[in-house]
Amino acid sequence: YFNLILVFIPYFVDEYMIQEDEWDRDMLLDPAWEKQQRKTFTAWCNSHLRKAGTQIENIEEDLRNGLKLMLLLEVISGERLPRPDRGKMRFHKIANVNKALDYITSKGVKLVSIGAEEIVDGNVKMTLGMIWTIILRFAIQDISVEETSAKEGLLLWCQRKTAPYRNVNVQNFHCSWKDGLAFCALIHRHRPDLIDYAKLKKDDHLGNLSLALEIAEKHLDIPKMLDPEDIINTPKPDERAIMTYVSCFYHAFAGAEQAETAANRICKVLGVNQENEKLMEEYERLASELLEWIRRTTPWLEKRTPENTVDAMRRKLEDFRDYRRIHKPPKVQEKCQLEINFNTLQTKLHISHRPAFMPSEGKMVSDIAAAWQGLDQAEKGYEEWLLTEIRRLERVEHLAEKFKQKAATHESWAQGKDQLLTLKDYESASLTELRALLRKHEAFESDLAAHQDRVEQIAAIAQELNELDYHAAAVINERCQSICDLWDQLGTLTQKRREALERTEKLLETIDQLFLEFAKRSAPFNNWMEGAMEDLQDMFMVHSVDEVQSLISAHDQFKATLAEADSERQAILSIYNEVQKIAQSYGISSKLTNIYCDITPAIINQKWEKVKKLVPQRDGALHEELSRQHVNERFRRQFAAQANAIGPWIQTRMEEIARSSVDLSGTLEDQMNQLKQYEHNIINYKSNIDRLEGDHQLIQESLIFDNKHTNYTMEQTHVASCALLCLQPYILVEELQRELPPEQAEYCISRMPPYQGPDGVPGALDYTAFSTVLYGESDL
């Protein structure tokens, strides 16, 4: 440690000088600092110039010609500068100032942004900067305290001198001096007779500063370079002014301090040898213990056995932090103490002009440093490994949890999808239902495509978990593989189902067209069969053979169309058979429904069989009716032959009777006899009428209502015969009314017997009984 300080002191000094030389112009912009520097630097310059019997009043004006500047440098350096130019022209002044600046540069001082023109022009900031550079180089740089120099050396000297004093803590060259106690402490440390430090008060800043400045000027020949009020009223006093003033204290007390140091060295020489022996033994012991601890600790730090959880790794990190916080600090102190002891021992031995201490083999400072470096490397690597491993595990656990969530979500979504995709519900679906299934499948395909990203994310997470060496990577891989396999399967099944749905849609469209054609052809054919059945079952009302012959002819024509109708039936059934063939060939349900009609092949066949069954029945009925009409025709002809004979006969008789009623040439008895003869003829002819009545009865039973062979009907014959029979009594009544007086005629008419037949038809008058009645009366 001591040797390192010796090596780096020159670097620190040079660095400090470079930093101080590269002064910042902006630092001089504070008016308070400028005022303090102007007064301090002027007083410092005068403290040296008065040795040459001169001084300055205004620092930027009095140094413009360069003469007093060159004189100042000669006084403080003890060297002669080049002869100055005595002219008063500007270039003379610039030449003198340049000579001064060249001398400063020759002393190893780097001047930054300071030019002779600016000094000659009275630039106060440049002038103050130049004076500070001179002060730093000739009054502060050479200060050396315990291997430190310049500003650090001066600060360390102040800290050492004021350390025993209460309320004094010198940490800098600005605020640490505001209360004046630090100045008083420096004076009291070297001249306790000048100040009673115990009576000073910390809060009396003005009093403390004034006392210190007055005593320094009066007793120590240190000019009063500062104003107490300026220091108190400035939040941060100017550091350069304070350093300049403090450096005067250092130079004032330097001689006394050197004498004191020499005395102390003599006093310490006696105990050095004994302390050296103790330090050697202590070094050996501490080195052994420290090396042993390093040998035990390093393998622990080099062990890189990862844990499976973040908590376990964090426990390792806590153990490591306990090591850093609890176990290592004492060892660091031991190492530092060991190095301090070693350097101290070597320094003491060197000072005592004794041989350097050589530790046991393997216990050199370099050995300990190498072992410690190895420990530090292991420690650094272990810490980096712990943090990296914790971050890895945190990432791994986060990814594992994310994988589980996404996998669970996807598995929940995918559950049962393969079964749905393998359903063959389209085989039993109608075209409308199939199209609905196709649209539903398209929606599923969109949903499937939307889940592609999740599957890719799951695969990417699984890949990253493998790359991060996840301890349960095998489980993750198995689950991921299962998801990917199922995803591939779903993709394959989706494509197959789409193909099956599209193929089935085309088949059902074909079937639909066949059903439509079936409906278009079966409907009129069904209507034809229904009409045919109605016609074949229709009751026919015929009254002649011609009419029956006409029906038979029409029926024969109908039968002639049955072959063509059967061909149409076969064609219609072939359409339905084609549907069944397609359904069977492609696994479509045979229970297909024709939405265009309710007619089925079974209905067609059933009606066709009924038509075929009704045709012979119609044949038989027509031929039976033909036979019946032939019988009826015979009845008509038979009835007509009799009626055509009876009708004229009755007409002739009625005409004869009518003529007899007009011709009244005979007596009543003659007329009655004539009527009786007519009656006898009529009665004898009644058998013919009865035969005609029998024929009429047959016609009635045969439901014959017309007869084109005769104009006479049975009703007309009945009426004519009744009229013929009834005409005789009427004639007799007329005769009685004409021949007899009214009373007798009425009486005779009232005595006439009934002439109504047993069947209610008027019969012939019983003239014999009537004559007996008439002649039996006494008054006739």
From TrEMBL:
Leader sequence segment: none
Coiled-coil portions: 269-296, 434-468, 668-695
Domain Calponin-homology (CH) stretches: 35-139, 148-254
GO MF annotation list: actin binding; metal ion binding
Keyword annotations from UniProtKB, A to Z: Actin-binding, Calcium, Coiled coil, Metal-binding, Repeat
Domain of life: Eukaryota
Stored CDD domains: CH_ACTN_rpt1 (cd21214), CH_ACTN_rpt2 (cd21216), SPEC (cd00176)
Cited PROSITE patterns: ACTININ_1, ACTININ_2, CH
SUPFAM superfamilies attached to this UniProt entry: Calponin-homology domain, CH-domain, EF-hand, Spectrin repeat
UniProt family annotation: Belongs to the alpha-actinin family.
Record-given protein name: Calponin-homology (CH) domain-containing protein
Source organism of this protein record: Cyprinus carpio
